[in-house]
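Quick entry, no commentary yet.
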Amino acid sequence: MSESLRQQFSVHWQTSTADNNLTLHGFRRFKTTHLLNLRFLEAEIAELDHVIYQAGLSLDIEPSAADRLGLKHSKKDKDTPDVDEVITRDLVLKLRGLLQQYDEALIAFNHVMSMDTFSLIDDEKQSSLRSELTLYEIYKTRLLRVDQAPRLRQDNFQRWIHKGLRALRYWRLNKRSQGDGDKERLGSPNAKGEWSYQSTTLISDVISRLVMATVTAAFIVVPLVLLSGEANKGVQLAVISACIVVFSFIVTVLLRASNLEMMVVSAAYAAILAVFVSNAPNAPSAVSSQP
């Protein structure tokens, strides 16, 4: 076994037998490399696509009435290729292979981008094994959680918390490394042999749920408290209208809710306040005094 392979095996063995799920199931996603591969495939298919279109235009077949592809406005090359020379079995096989690779790569990349990620800086043990990366590169490197199912959605508020936790950890580690006089050192295990980890996905999920539960409760309790002693219908309608507008705005901005979900939530919130107003006492009528 060569020295390089022995060293790689030593690193891979440590990450593959780790006790923490971040180290055990964290893999790089290579976003830029995936995109480059898709662009190369796209460019190769685009060249063949141009040749095929030019061959088709050289047939001088009248486009259909609707002309959905806009063939009437397509520009022919000066040297139009001969169909018999261009459309060959080799071209068909090459096109078929490229399209298969392209489609599979698109689907795979879409699946990869839907998986939960965390920053390499959240896993200090795995970060310490990547000596070729600077602290900032480690902070910017995203790892995939291959042990979890792809996420269907991620709320904007949860994503902001996730980013904030990563930035805070980077700031703390950067400050600690500057204090130690070595910006590239990521520390070492404590006296018990334990490394530092930060499960930002779990933390951000818990925090976002608690905050949204608090905000929802506040938007229900506060209007009820304000309107409990208010009998003027005009003031009641003004407070309710303002609460509904603000609540709908928060749901739209902070949560990744669909249009239908946003309408249902806003309507349900408006119905709760409307029921309270309908049961509220009316303004006392003026009593005329007898002389």
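second:
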Amino acid sequence: MSTIWLQIGQCGNQVGQEWWKLVTNEKAPNSTLDRYPFRAPDGKLSALCVDSEPKVVRSLLREVKSGSFRDSNISLGLRGRGNNWALGYHGLKREDDNSLLHRTLDSFRKEVERRDAYSGVVLLHSLTGGTGSGLGAHLCESIREEFPVGYILSVTVAPHQVGESPLQHYNSLLCLSWLQRYADGVLLFHNDDVLRRMQVLCGKKIDHAPALQPPISLSDMNTHIASCLAGLMYPVSNLRTQRGTASWDSMLSSIVRTLPRHSPTGDVYQSTAVLAVARGNRAETFNCSLQPIMMKMKQGYGCVSWNSHPLDSWTDPCNIVDLMSSSHSLTICANHSSVSDYIQRVLEKAQTMYDAHAYLHWYWKHGCEEEDFMQAFEILDSVVKEYIAAGDH
């Protein structure tokens, strides 16, 4: 595979480490070096890790010693970015051409040059941390300018609605606007949704003893996100969002039941496109019952009428998450208009803070300008309007 994986900041590197645990399982299909889809021709992982602090990435040193990870692909700073998009984007004032941004781009160019063809990059990062949001946005912009033909897919994690950082709405606003301008696609995971999903899964496992239900850890949430990515993005010969021995219809019903149907204002949510990935030793039965499953998906996800082919499906006989079991998994990726509610909430929170001039001095101090905010408000407002218009065609 000619794709490079770029892990940025604490969140990006933690999710990335869980991702590599899954896909580098030596029992996984296509795991031999000449066919392995996530390695460079010399057998090293096609990954770069960048963080402004060394604490999270230290665990990767074991992978460096084992020979699977390239030491030159780890770029670290000595000072965090203070949960500030502006500091992450513009960097420290005393930095020169040896800055974290320049070192990362230099490693990226060398990784591109190691392969016969370059198709694109997957960015793993968060919307709220200074490094993930600010440096992530700058890297996305720089990679687009230097490698305009390659695709850029952002896998980004939105913060909890309440309580992560007083700057999270500004950071999310600015980062999302940069992704809208420079990325080809965004897979958005929301911490609140991931936590609810994990609580449902854990509740099912030990519903006979709710008092003993273990707390959901950050590591659990990162593993869940990584397994969702594996279900969607691992090659098919063709996540663990749903697993077990249930029928495909039952699994789909369980997923559809969790979908929000209406916005707070009563508008019906719709999807412009939906992809289902079925994995496991029963994958062939998915194709046998494809028509009723697709009809249920079309109705459950509210596919827009103007798209004549809104649904697609992939299958693979191997369940990458549970290689030793007979379980099967169903992963669904949808461009669902409920995301506009999150964007609208970011807009409203950020606008309220901006009008009150709250915390703005921290952004002016590190190089941000009023035009950056005005452009971000305009871009995200247009995204919300486009989602609304998509259902009116």
